[in-house]
Task: inverse folding
């Protein structure tokens, strides 16, 4: 097995001209150069989750997640969820394992230290929030703006309609469809553990 | 959001709404150090590559050319609609049905031509694609693959490369680069142990333009499956 980002192209491997496969395609096919790119794109997200959950062992979590992602790559199924949902499921699992195997229970900020059951909800809280944040970022800009005004700025639908000069029905539709998308990402992420 | 707008949404999306209500989330931006990538590559078995060092070159060509290395990388090649690039002077490749018909004829001719050969090993029943006027042979002995192409002076002036393909259900799933082959000459490639010949059992010869792009051009001229 080999890796090595840009170096792989110089070794005579690459894609036929005119073809730009997605990260998902490359993962499905088993293109090993994809792992470095996944690391570049998602590494900081996993590190952030790690900082919140295991503090200075966050880099260990990153390593565990990307090793697991490569070893489990054949289980990635684009029809069952996005790449983010899939990676976040791996992150949940590895974070729970890392917390449970850690002797340093004092790192667990929750009050229920020593209660193994408390680890999962704590991990879920952190990962859920990140999954929803990323899904929100990925919404079309107009929809994202409506959702943000609705839930972060606490405006009513009518106020949003007025501010953005949109029909009320459009605002309601944006809110509902935005929430549906976020919900789906969240459900996929949890189902893929 | 006022509760009058809220009610039926809360029923359906209560959990997501609760998460959003915690305020605009911060997407983490601290990047992992390079050492973390090294640790990942190390755990997956390739520490040298993680450090950017040259990898061992398991495929060697006796042609002395710049044989490309292959140590088990799979990569994804396009589905059948490859970009044709510069059209060869003999025209565009035939449609698949016609190519198969041509292929069958050439297979018959090739089999007749080599029937007397008692060498042990696997042979690829290579057939020309499109209207490429040449022909060729591909013979595997153990882990050595010998490929030749011929067809006279019409073929000169082009650069030919040999590949192994993983084709399943008509789709090219993987491509291994072996090295160049010259018209009228044999090129022998020693295949690394980790080249899985059950998967990469199609020998392919392509024309490669001199554009510095190491990827397969998509212009295959000769192809055949290794058979025992």
Result:
């Amino acid at each position: 097995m080999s890796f090595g980002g840009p170096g792989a192209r110089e070794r005579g491997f690459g894609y036929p001209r005119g073809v730009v496969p997605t990260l998902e395609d490359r993962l499905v096919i088993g293109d090993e150069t994809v792992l470095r790119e996944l690391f570049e794109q998602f590494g900081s997200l996993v590190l952030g989750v790690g900082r919140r959950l295991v503090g200075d062992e966050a880099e260990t979590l990153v390593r565990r997640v990307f090793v697991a992602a490569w070893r489990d790559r054949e289980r990635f199924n684009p029809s069952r969820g996005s790449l983010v949902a899939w990676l976040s499921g791996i992150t949940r699992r590895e974070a729970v394992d890392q917390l449970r195997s850690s002797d340093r229970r004092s790192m667990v900020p929750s009050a229920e230290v020593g209660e193994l059951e408390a680890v999962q909800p704590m991990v879920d809280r952190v990962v859920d929030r990140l999954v929803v944040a990323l899904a929100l970022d990925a919404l079309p800009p107009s929809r994202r703006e409506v959702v943000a005004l609705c839930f972060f700025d606490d405006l009513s639908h009518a106020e949003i309609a007025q501010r953005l000069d949109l029909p009320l029905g459009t605002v309601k539709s944006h809110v509902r469809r935005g929430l549906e998308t976020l919900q789906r990402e969240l459900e996929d992420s949890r189902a893929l553990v | 959001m006022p509760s009058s707008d809220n009610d039926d949404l809360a029923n359906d999306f209560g959990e997501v709404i609760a998460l959003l209500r915690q305020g605009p989330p911060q997407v983490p931006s601290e990047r992992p150090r390079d050492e973390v990538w090294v640790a990942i590559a190390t755990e997956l078995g390739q520490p040298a590559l993680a450090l950017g060092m040259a990898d061992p070159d398991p495929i060697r060509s006796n042609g002395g050319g710049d044989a490309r290395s292959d140590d088990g990388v799979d990569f994804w090649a396009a589905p059948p609609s490859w970009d044709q690039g510069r059209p060869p002077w003999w025209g565009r490749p035939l449609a698949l049905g016609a190519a198969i018909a041509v292929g069958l004829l050439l297979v018959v001719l090739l089999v007749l031509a080599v029937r007397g050969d008692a060498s042990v090993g696997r042979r690829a029943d290579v057939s020309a694609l499109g209207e490429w006027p040449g022909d060729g042979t591909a013979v595997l002995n153990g882990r050595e693959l010998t490929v030749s192409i011929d067809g006279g002076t019409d073929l000169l002036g082009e650069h030919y490369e040999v590949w192994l393909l993983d084709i399943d259900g008509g789709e090219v799933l993987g491509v291994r680069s072996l090295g160049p082959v010259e018209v009228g000459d044999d090129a022998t490639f020693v295949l690394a142990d980790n080249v899985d010949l059950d998967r990469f059992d199609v020998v392919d010869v392509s024309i490669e333009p001199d554009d510095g792009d190491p990827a397969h051009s998509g212009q295959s001229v000769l192809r055949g499956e290794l058979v025992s």
Remarks:
- Confidence is low (pLDDT under 50) at residues 48-94, 114-119 of chain B.
- The longest strand of chain B covers residues 171-181.
- Strands of chain B lie at 60-61, 122-124, 127-128, 135-141, 144-150, 160-168, 171-181, 186-190, 202-207, 220-227.
